[in-house]
Amino acid sequence: MTGLPLTAAPGLTRGTHLGYALGSIGTAAFGTVPGLLLLYYLTDVLGVGAGIAGLVVFAPKAWDVLLNPWVGARSDATDSRWGPRRPWMLAGGLALPPLFVLVFAGPGAPPWLAATWVAVTFLLAATAYGLFQVPYVAQPAEITLDPGERSTLVSWRVAALAVGVLLAGAGAPEVRDLAGGGRAGHLAMAGFVAVLLAVGMLGAVVGTRNARTLTRVASEGRLLHTVRVAARVRPFRLLLTGFVVQALGIGVMLAGVPYYAERVLGDGGAGTLLFLALVGPAIVVMPLWLRVGRRVGKRAGLLAAGAVFAVGAAGLALGGPGRTGLVLGLVVLVGVGYAGLQMFPLAMLPDVVGADEASSGRRRAGVFTGVWTAAETLGLAVGPAVLGGLLSLAGYRSSVGDDVVTQTGAADTTVLLSFSVLPALLVLASLPFIARYRLEPTP
After folding, report:
1. What are the backbone dihedrals phi and psi of residue 108, each rounded to the nearest 5 degrees, phi first?
2. CA nearest 263: which of 313, 304, 320?
3. C-alpha to C-alpha distances, 422 to 55, 134, 314, 390, nearest whole angstrom
4. Please, is 28 exposed, middle or buried when counting C-beta atoms within 10 Å of its C-beta (0-12, 13-18, 19+)?
5. Percent helix, strand and coil across the chain, each rounded to 5?
6. By CB neighbour count within 10 A (0-12 exposed, 13-18 middle, 19+ buried), where does 279 fall?
7. Residue 81's CB: how many other CB atoms inside 10 A?
8. What gap in Å lies between CA 34 and CA 103, rounded to an integer?
9. How many CB atoms lie within 10 A of CB 51?
10. Where are the domains of the chain?
11. Which residue from 99, 186, 267, 407 could staple onto 125, CB 3.0 to 4.6 Å apart?
12. The pLDDT value given to residue 216
C-alpha cells in the first residue's frame, strides 16, 4: 500500500531553515566533544590504559549500528499529529543532556571502575543521541520535494554544524581549563555541552513544527529486509562507503588534537587554536561550496573537497615545536576541505532517498538514514579506538591528573602521523567510491 507525494508544495520558510539548522548545534556537540576529549580524559585524567580507553569510547557507539536502523524503521511507521520524526527527536533531546553530564560525573578511581562508569553512561547517552539523530537526518527528504531546496536546507544545517563544532570543540576545552582541568574541569565542561545539546535539539523540535510531511507512503516495516534493500541501492552504497571512510579519518584526527598539541607542538593550549582553524573556515566557505555544487555538481564538489582536505592533512606531518603558525595555516586548508566533506554527502543523501521513494513507492527515509547515521557514528567511533590502539602499540604511557610522564619516541611519532598522514590517506581512499557514484532510479 502506498500513498502519493504531493506534486506541488510550498517552499520552506526561513524560520524552518533556521529551526532545522539548530539541531546541528546538538549533533555537533555530541559528535565532536567525546571524539575530542573522552579518550584523553580516560588516559590522562583517569589513568585508564590507552587500549582499554579506545574500546570504552568505541563500544557504546558501535551499539548504534543496531540501534539506529531500528529507530529509523520505527520512526518510518510512526503516525502522530507531530509528524513521524519529531516525537523521537523530542525524546532524544530531553534525555541526552543529563546523560552527557553523567558520563563525566563518575568515580575517579580505581581505573577499572572509572572506565566501567564511562562505558555504561556513554552507552546510554549514545542511545539517546540515536533517538534524535536518525529522524533528524531523515527530515529533509520528507519536508521538501525540491533537490535544490534540499541543498539549501542542508547548507544551513552544515553552517550550523560548523558553529556547533566551533562552540563545542573550542569552548569545551576552554571551560574545562577555566574550571581547573582534571575531573572537576571535565564535569564543568559537560554541563556547558549539555546546554548546547538542549538548545540545539529541542530548538529543532520547535523550529520544524510548521514543516509539512510531503510524502506519506507505507513504511516497509521489516527492519532486516529494508536494511538489505538499502544496501542494494548502488548510489546509496557507494556514497555511504565513501562517507564512512572519510568519517574514520576525521575521527582519528579529532581524537588526536590534544595529543598533537601537547606532544608535537609542545603546547597543550594550542588545541583550541587548532579547532578554531579547522572549523572557522567552514562558516566562510560553505556558500562557496554550495555554489561549486550548483555549478559542477555535488559529486564533483565532494571529490574536490576530499582532495583539499588530504593535501592539508598530509602537510601537518611537518609540524613541530615552533611551527604553530605553519600548522595553523595547514589546518585552515583542512577546514576548507572539511566543510565540503560535511555538506555534500548530507545534501546527496536526501536525493538518494527521494529517488528510491519515487521509484519504489515506499517510505524508507528512516531506514536509509538509520543505516547512514549508524555507519557514520561507527566510523567516528572507530577513529578514537584506532588511535588508542596505535598509541598502546607504540607504548604510550597513561597518567592521572597532573602527573608528568615521559613518552617514547615511537609514541610521539604515532601521534604525529595519526594527526596528519593517516587521515589524509583515509580521505584519499574514499574518493574512488565517490567517483563511481551516480544517482540512478532504483529498480
Report:
1. -95, -15
2. 320
3. 20, 29, 8, 11
4. buried
5. 80, 0, 20
6. buried
7. 6
8. 10
9. 18
10. 14-209+223-435
11. 99
12. 47
Burial class (CB in 10 A: 0-12, 13-18, 19+), 291: exposed
Residues for the chain: how many in total?
A: 443
Angstrom distance (rounded) from CA 38 to CA 116:
13
> How far is Cα 83 from Cα 362, in angstroms, rounded to an integer?
17
> From CA 138, how far away is CA 143, in angstroms rounded?
9
* pLDDT block averages, 10 residues each, the chain of length 443: 39 78 88 81 85 81 76 74 82 95 90 91 92 83 67 74 80 87 91 94 86 54 62 82 89 83 80 79 79 88 94 92 89 91 82 71 67 74 79 75 66 87 94 84 38
For 253, the 3-state DSSP assignment is helix
Cell of 173: 576545552
DSSP character string of 172-213:
HHHHHHHTTSHHHHHHHHHHHHHHHHHHHHHHHHHHTTT---
CATH architecture of 14-209+223-435: Up-down Bundle (1.20)
Residue 400 phi, psi dihedral angles, 5° rounding: -120, 130
pLDDT score at 151: 66
Q: Quick one: pLDDT at residue 50?
A: 79
The residues near 213 (Cβ < 8 Å, ≥ 6 apart) are 83, 84, 142, 143
User: 3-state SS of 70-107?
Assistant: HHHHHHHHCCCCCCCCHHHHHHHHHHHHHHHHHHCCCC
Distances (CA, A) of 19 to 150, 155, 167, 208, 373: 14, 13, 18, 6, 21
Task: Quote the crossing angle between the two packed helices 223-232 and 234-259, to the nearest 10°.
Answer: 90
The position carrying cell 615511537 is: 410
Task: List phi, psi (to 5°) of 233.
Answer: -80, 105
How far, in Å, CA of 402 to CA of 92, rounded? 36
